[in-house]
TrEMBL record:
Residues 23-42, 260-284 are annotated as: Disordered. This is Cell shape-determining protein MreB. It comes from the Bacteria. PANTHER family: LIPL48, SECRETED PROTEIN. Residues 1-20 form the signal peptide. PROSITE patterns: PROKAR_LIPOPROTEIN. Residues 260-282 have a biased composition (Polar residues). The keyword Signal applies.
Length: 475
């Protein structure tokens, strides 16, 4: 056997060790991309000020919103699937797509786009940053010089019902909803929509731990499907300023111990404050008249909570419909609020009597006071008994279920699980049948089925893209 000289053997061993060390450190792997702009201490590319030309982000980078970030008119911000965007707390980072601009943010079921807190896992909280705001040119009932809440500079609304603000699909918005000023009503919601038109695509969107509402529509005609509101602070689905869009398949799950000082509701709907006079276009008209179908709003299967151990206020109503609203809700289930339906004000009651405001296929369950009137005095006054008679009218297929009979709904055993909920119905559920698709719900936008609420027993449309434990997720 031929022998290597000792020095040659040592040299070969050293070379092998060096090669092994290189492989362990992955020095031969792909070179990380050079950041496309200034970065913060965590290496996230900073987005600040105005985006005044078309810009495409990269899923290989992480981004930090500092202050109000405006995508200006005529420009498009494209966000690929899997991109992660963080909101800065100190500067109340907020992404605002102005009127005439677009967002093209289309994630996938297995690779959603994520907007979240810049804080580390375990330290995130309600209202860590501003949120996502879309501003469009669709009709509203406010003057066209009216400005959004929270000091946002962008005028909204117009005459283009089909206005297109882009796409937001398979996206999560977490820990947003911070007050942007000390003025009343200065909060930004998880997703805020000002005068957004029906040309916009909104589908598969989750808002979690918002410090204000989950979703709020200020006028416009935008339609949406597959919305998830998870453990938010104030209202889940809030409509104002003449919103007339259509929404199908939405679910809310609340933490019973967190609510807002204003009284948290599943649905809150106003024409505007105070709701009248409604004299004409951009002056009270159009009336707020969205149509919702297949919504599920859950607080608790236990006794409805009227005082909170945490938060700043308490729960109020499953549906608080007030200030001359003409909203309609079909084929939906509401469980665990202290009140079920609160019809508020004589103008709201008049809209219900005229058929503009309608509820059908509705289940109110586990409420202390399922049906009530509010502020119904003077001309047009109405009572709790009037509301009950209207709600229970023939053909509506509405029902009230007591807490003692909640099991008849056949909800999933994990329906109220705050870390791993499952909303699919049991095969025995009474909600699998009884849907009503008449009147406004007969519109072609709505997929007609037999079940009430957002889920049947087989199609879990939250699977793959949602996250019900964002506090412990390392982004």
């Amino acid at each position: 056997m031929k022998r290597f000289p000792k020095l040659m053997l040592l040299g070969l061993l050293s070379m092998a060790a060096a090669l092994s060390s290189c492989e362990d450190n992955n020095d031969n792997g792909p070179t990380p991309p050079t950041p496309s702009g200034p970065t913060d201490s965590a290496g996230r590319v900073i987005l600040t000020g105005e985006i005044t030309s078309n810009r495409t982000l990269s899923a290989n980078e992480k981004y930090l919103l500092q202050g109000n970030v405006y995508v200006t008119s005529g420009n498009t911000l494209t966000i690929p699937a899997g991109t992660k965007i963080f909101g800065d707390q100190a500067t109340k980072g907020t992404l605002i797509i102005e009127r005439g601009a677009k967002i093209m943010a289309e994630g996938t079921q297995n690779n959603p786009i994520i907007f979240t807190s810049a804080k580390a896992p375990g330290s995130r909280n309600y209202g860590d940053w501003g949120g996502v705001v879309l501003v469009g040119a669709a009709p509203t009932n406010r003057a066209l010089t009216f400005l959004p809440e929270g000091g946002i500079r962008s005028l909204f609304g117009g005459t283009n019902a089909a206005d297109n603000s882009g796409i937001l699909k398979y996206a999560r918005i977490e820990y947003a909803g911070v007050p942007l000023s000390t003025d009343p009503n200065s909060e930004i919601n998880g997703l805020t929509l000002y005068g957004v038109g029906s040309g916009t695509t909104l589908d598969y969107i989750q808002v979690s731990y918002s410090g204000d509402d989950a979703f709020e529509w200020f006028g416009g005609t935008a339609n949406a499907k597959h919305l998830v509101a998870f453990r938010n602070w104030d209202d889940d689905f809030d409509t104002d300023y003449g919103f007339t869009g259509k929404i199908q398949y939405g679910v809310s799950l609340r933490d019973p111990q967190y609510a807002d000082q204003s009284g948290s509701n599943g649905f809150e709907s106003d024409n505007f404050n105070p709701g009248t006079p409604a004299n004409g276009t951009n002056d009270g008209l159009p009336l707020t008249a969205p149509v919702f179908s297949n919504m599920s709003v859950f607080v608790t299967a236990g006794a409805p909570v009227t005082t909170q151990q945490s938060g700043s206020g308490s729960y109020q109503s499953a549906l608080h419909l007030r200030r001359n609203t003409s909203t309609s809700v079909y084929n939906s289930v509401f469980v665990g609020q202290p009140e079920g339906l609160r019809l508020d004000g004589t103008t709201t009651w008049a809209n219900a009597q005229a058929g503009g405001l309608n509820l059908a296929g509705i289940v109110l369950a586990n409420n202390n006071t399922p049906l009530r009137s509010a502020n119904g005095t003077g001309t047009g006054a109405f009572t709790d008994a009037d509301v009950q008679g209207w709600f229970n009218a023939s053909g509506k297929n509405n029902s009230v279920v007591t807490g003692a009979n909640l099991s008849t709904l056949g909800l999933n055993t994990n329906n109220f699980n705050l870390s791993a909920p499952n909303f699919l119905l049991q095969s025995s559920s009474s909600l699998l049948t009884g849907a009503v698709f008449t009147g406004k719900a007969s519109d072609a936008f709505f997929t007609q089925g037999t079940f009430r609420g957002a889920f049947n027993g087989t199609d879990n449309w939250t699977q793959g893209w949602t996250n019900f434990d964002p506090q412990n997720t390392a982004y």
